[in-house]
Amino acid sequence: MPGKKSKRAPQKVWTVYIVRCADGSFYTGYTGDLEKRLDAHNRGKGAKYTAGRRPVELVHHETFKDRFEAMKREYRIKCLTKSQKQALITAPHPSEM
Fold it and tell me: What number does CATH give the domain 14-91?
């Protein structure tokens, strides 16, 4: 019908993120709500790994429209060495070029 708007739910955005823990180590994860997840990490509820390494600081994030793609990217980042993660963090994002 003309003039009738679709009631489609907004597309969920998935975020792959890297946080730097208080001890200098990195933690990589993915989430559908980055702000909520970071808050959980800093309250000691986000992950066992980060619970004892608070506070955490967001140092890198990438967004995806598909959860599976975010999970694949998270896995690829987790396979990187610490120095490779550091290079990823310091590299300019395409949107910043």
Answer: 3.40.1440.10
